[in-house]
């Protein structure tokens, strides 16, 4: 199963992020995230990503790769 997303981002910092599963050309929404503090959400998720990398480590989904850089 592949995961895809689309985003609705506004000038005032509000955002709606739709996360989909892709199955044989059909798109099913799995989750929708809405925030009016996108920078704050990113600031919270980046440390969580690092904690997961440290905890689960090599061989896991969270294995440290260069795909996500902390800002």
From TrEMBL:
Domain of life per record: Bacteria
Protein name: Uncharacterized protein
Natural source organism: Paenibacillus rhizosphaerae
